[in-house]
Design brief:
The protein is an alpha+beta fold. The chain folds into two domains: 2-71 and 250-313, FAD/NAD(P)-binding domain; 74-176 and 203-240, no CATH class. It has helices at 40-49, 108-112, 135-138, 141-146, 152-161, 205-224, 294-313; strands at residues 2-7, 13-20, 25-30, 34-36, 70-71, 74-81, 102-103, 122-128, 165-172, 181-189, 195-200, 228-231, 251-252, 277-279. The strands form five sheets. It has a five-stranded antiparallel sheet, covered by helices on one side. A three-stranded antiparallel sheet has the order 1-2-3. Strands 4-14 form a two-stranded parallel sheet. Strand 1 and strand 2 (13-20) form a beta hairpin. The structure holds flavin-adenine dinucleotide (FAD).
């Protein structure tokens, strides 16, 4: 369990101090290059906990931006019942749903023309079909739509309705804002004695209006198909926008950028202040585009790896 990145007299990283979970003892491992990839917030935590005389506010944090601009994906969902799907002949629909149905953002021209009430966009993940029956179909569904039944009648009703439910999940872009960040909680440590993070999170109007657009679009699709909306959210519930962290696409907290003043890392995810420190998780993200993050994390990590090799060959980073 990594605790901190150690720093030498020249301000460069010299290794990592960690807790051996089996013995609970503190161990130090020396390294010529340190790469953090502990997931974005944990990487920020390690950096903020890496305090030294050169970096009293955490390693590579001369900008004060480590921990700032944490983001998640904008998520809001609507469910519906579609009578047009009743009585379809049984077929194997394995794979129908979010795994294979995906609708990319389609209003980019309107967006560019400034006709949308919010910035950026979202994609839609669609669920439904004859998947393994869950609560929706077994728990009150036949009763609600066909009056229930008992025995043979109930089985017939369930067969009739099986596959009539549909679910739309919006997944949209979040723009970083000053109110969403993490910092070290000076009063709480984890089981290894390492200070934990505390979080501050706020959606901006852009994201809330995006959730509203999701709600209105999904409800319109369902009613246009002659269906009934069974689960939705209005203004009183902020249009169903999921709390920050719930969509589990956390990114940001150690941003990349053009200058050491406006960012912690350069375009290759190398710390401006500590040339032999690199970050290869979602911490460098400067926005949280609507696409799910993992492939971008992988692509950036690959690019950073190539860059490290290049810099070592050019003797810009000594090993
Ligand atoms: C249930 C779920 C579903 C998801 N679905 C999708 C999806 O469909 N598509 C998508 O793109 N993304 C999805 N995500 C998000 C995606 O999993 C993450 O964005 C991605 O895994 C982050 O990669 P990472 O390498 O930064 O961190 P991680 O995959 O979390 O890896 C970090 C590693 O560092 C280790 N570590 C952490 N702290 C320390 C420490 N102090 N010392 C030593 N080791 C440490 C951890 O044990 C872990 O092995 C999902 C997330 C969850 C939770």
């Amino acid at each position: 369990m990594a605790r901190e990145v150690m720093v030498g007299p020249d301000g460069q990283a010299i290794g990592v101090s960690y807790v051996d979970k089996k013995t609970r003892s503190e161990v130090q491992v020396r390294a010529k290059i340190v790469v953090l990839a502990a997931s974005c917030c944990e990487t920020a935590r390690i950096m903020l906990n890496s305090k030294s005389s050169q970096f009293p506010n955490g390693i590579a944090n001369s900008s004060g931006l480590v921990g700032k601009y944490v983001m998640d994906t904008v998520g809001s969902a609507v469910s519906g019942f579609l009578p047009i799907m009743q009585d379809l002949p049984p077929a194997n629909e394995d794979g129908v749903g979010g795994m294979h149905l995906y609708m990319p953002w389609w209003l980019y021209k309107e967006q560019k023309a400034g006709k949308m009430p919010f910035a950026r966009g979202y994609h839609i993940e669609i669920g439904g079909g004859r998947t393994q029956p869950g609560n929706g179909i077994m728990n009150g569904y036949a009763e609600r739509w066909l009056g229930g039944g008992y025995g043979v009648e109930m089985k017939a009703n369930l067969r009739k309705l099986y596959g009539c439910q549909v679910h739309f999940s919006g997944r949209g872009e979040m723009i970083p804002n000053d109110n969403s960040y993490c910092e070290i909680d000076n009063d709480v440590v984890d089981q290894w004695g390492i200070p934990v993070l505390k979080f501050h999170f706020k959606w901006s109007e852009d994201e809330i209006l995006q959730a509203r657009h999701m709600q209105e679009t999904f409800q319109q699709i369902i009613t246009t198909m002659g269906g009934t909306v069974t689960s939705s959210f209005g203004a009183d519930k902020n249009w169903g926008i999921a709390p920050g962290g719930e969509i589990i696409h956390e990114v940001g907290a150690v941003k990349m950028g053009d200058t050491p003043k406006n960012s912690v890392l350069n375009q290759y995810c190398q710390a401006w202040d500590v040339k032999n420190l690199f970050i290869t998780d979602a911490a460098p993200f400067v926005s949280n585009a609507d696409k799910n993050p993992t492939l971008t994390i992988t692509a950036l990590g690959w690019r950073t790896s190539d860059y490290i090799v290049d810099q070592v060959k050019k003797l810009n980073v000594k090993v």
